[in-house]
Amino acid sequence: MNAKNTLKLACGALLVLACGYSWSQSGAASAASGGASASAAPAQSNRTLRRAVYAAFAKDKSIDAGDVGVSAKNGAVTLTGTVDRADQIDKAATLAKGVPGVVSVQNKLTVKRAFSQ
């Protein structure tokens, strides 16, 4: 009777180990084929691209990017918000296009209006 219980226990343990092994293998396969962990990479890349555009603005002293918003998705950058002068709109787009990884720029910037206007 004791040998029978030991055999059942050993078979159960092997079954659990086999299921755990196959589960870990299928998780690795789904990650390699574009699973959940692969989708985290573009989000990080988008964040990195946004930061690089902001850094390009910071290096150029002719742009006041305090009211400029930058969003990035798969290399497409969108600029929103306001700038002080009209020439800064084109300058911001040019700077954003010069950042490595940027494939397109959608410029939605506008010029700030004074309260009296």
Automatic annotation (TrEMBL):
Keywords of the record: Signal
Region entry Disordered, spans: 26-47
Membrane in keyword set: no
Protein name (Swiss-Prot/TrEMBL): Transport-associated domain-containing protein
Signal peptide span: 1-24
Pfam families linked: BON (PF04972)
PANTHER family xrefs: BON DOMAIN-CONTAINING PROTEIN (PTHR34606:SF15)
Composition bias, Low complexity: 26-45
Keyword Thylakoid in annotation: no
The BON domain, residue ranges: 45-113
InterPro entries assigned to the protein according to its UniProt record, in alphabetical order: BON_dom (IPR007055), Lipoprotein_DolP (IPR051686), Transpt-assoc_nodulatn_dom_bac (IPR014004)
